[in-house]
Specification:
mainly alpha, elongated
């Protein structure tokens, strides 16, 4: 869906930064021009996975999750802190 909406997501940005020039050029072209063609969008997704873009984004999310929870634990226990912790866990643990 993000590709159809021409959104540059972290996995896509990572892939563009870590792939060869020809693949990068083709990905950019597809995102800009052929984002409704299922086969071409699948090709982009396959290349993002192959380049490690999904794994990179998941690792970054885990890093930010740990950092957020660590900061929250500096505050005394309270309903507000618990709510923020729950929100962090909900956003980072949900399945897409």
């Amino acid at each position: 869906n993000d590709i159809k909406e021409k959104k540059l997501t972290l996995p896509l940005i990572y892939t563009l930064s870590n792939t060869d020039k020809e693949t990068r050029r083709k990905i950019i072209y597809i995102v800009k021009n052929n984002n409704n063609d299922r086969e071409k969008v699948k090709w982009v997704i396959d290349n993002v996975e192959k380049a490690g873009g999904i794994d990179y984004a998941k690792q970054k999310m885990e890093d930010f999750k740990s950092e957020a929870l660590s900061i929250l634990h500096e505050f005394p226990e309270s309903p507000v802190r618990k709510g923020l912790e729950d929100m962090v866990l909900f956003v980072t643990d949900r399945k897409y």
